[in-house]
Amino acid sequence: MVKIKEIDSIKSDKLDMKTIINKIKEILNSGYQEEAIVVKDNNVIKKHEIYWALKYLGTKFIAVSNEEENVKVSLDFLGFYDEVSDPGIRVYNNTIELIERDRPTPLVKLNGIINDKKIGIWAKLEWYNPFSLSIKDRTAWYIIYNNLDKLSDKEKIFEATSANTGIAIAAISSILGKKTRVFMPETSPDYASKLLKIYGSDVVREGNTTNELIEKVKIYAEKENAFVPNQFSNIFNLLVHLRYTAKEIDYQTIYGKLKLNGIFASMGTGGHIAGLIFYFHNKNKAVKIFGIQPEENGTIPGIKKQDFKNWWNINDSPDDIYSVSLEESIDVLITTARTNGILPGISGGAVLAGLKKAYNNGDLDEGDYVCIIPDNGIKYLDEIYNERVL
Ligand code: PLP
């Protein structure tokens, strides 16, 4: 007999990620749990892949049986959206709950970016995350909390980062009583070194890009028995955006009654856009995902041109890519400050500049578009101020 149980009351052995990812894809495509998991004494004995797929999709419930049975239970019925809806009175027992439970981040309509009433532009404000005041809190938290077993005999966490991930890791390490060493390129902003030191982290500044530091970090970590989250290829960097960032946008646009045509996102590790692509290209293909990169030879903090070969092992990529300059990014974020009273960070400016380009090319349809704003402009005050000599 099929019963609906809380997923956290069920236990299952770990499974290889590839099998789980394939099952997640299947479930997102159908929108249903189509077979009950088979349990004995609340332990999964068959259909482990369904258990893990729903676990990483973040449903509250799961359909179980003591024998193999077909079912048709919608994700909605299984409490798929519960964890991203209504944080209620917002009283939390500790600071980690601010990232675990204080969801979703706000989605706000912006005025004055393009002059067309038929197109709604909505900014998802990721500086509302608690530690680094950026989207990278999600990545740092999810990688670390899904690797607590690997971390248990280690005292240190080492990571290469342009700034935000390092700050998020340093904050979360403090909560866990671990020590962090952050490897940042010389080009990273100075406030980041200061903030990291305040958090008690060691800081190594070297080279021009984070890419140059990835191998070095691995070598040091091996010598000193440190854990490396490795945001650049850790699958939990994609899964956190699939489970939360994408699901939040889906929930907010469905219940906010928007006509979501597309999402614009910048690309650094590619983690957040890959999560969005995986989610929407399987669950709702009408939603297009657009990537933003710096123009040839240009630099924009936190983002870079991607190599889509074997990219995140999802066999997929953005529907279109727009290249923008630093000047265009700063221009639009100053417009945003002067028309909406908020100052996105520079990569957020790049996303808005990319949307403007898409509009000017005639690529946008009537309806709504979401722009992911990774962090806040206060972090880049001098760069923004000096660029425009205000
Ligand atoms: N914008 C900023 C300010 C960032 O710090 C980052 C990543 O570090 C990104 C954009 C890109 O995000 P992702 O690594 O998910 O591609």
Give the class from helix and strand content and strand pairing. Answer: alpha/beta
Provide the domain count. Answer: 3
Ligands, ions, cofactors = pyridoxal-5'-phosphate
Principal-axis shape: globular
The CATH topology of the largest domain comes to Rossmann fold
- Rg from Cα: 21 Å
Helix content: 25-40%
Biggest sheet: strand arrangement: 7-8-16-13-14-15
Molecular structure report:
This protein is α/β, with parallel strands linked by helices. 38% of the residues lie in helices and 21% in strands. The chain has helices spanning 17-30, 48-57, 97-100, 136-145, 148-151, 164-176, 190-198, 214-224, 235-255, 271-283, 326-340, 346-360, 381-388, and strands at 3-6, 32-35, 37-40, 43-46, 61-65, 70-74, 107-110, 119-125, 156-160, 179-184, 202-205, 226-227, 260-266, 288-294, 320-324, 367-373. It has a six-stranded mixed β-sheet with strand order 7-8-16-13-14-15, sandwiched between helices. A four-stranded mixed β-sheet has the order 1-5-3-4, covered by helices on one side. A four-stranded parallel β-sheet has the order 11-10-9-12, with helices on both faces. A hairpin with a 2-residue loop joins strand 3 and strand 4. Helix 4 crosses helix 9. The structure holds pyridoxal-5'-phosphate (PLP).
Which terms would index this structure?
Conserved hypothetical protein from pyrococcus furiosus pfu- 392566-001, ParB domain; globular; Rossmann fold; alpha/beta; 390 residues; binds pyridoxal-5'-phosphate; 3 domains; 16 strands; 4-stranded mixed sheet; 13 helices
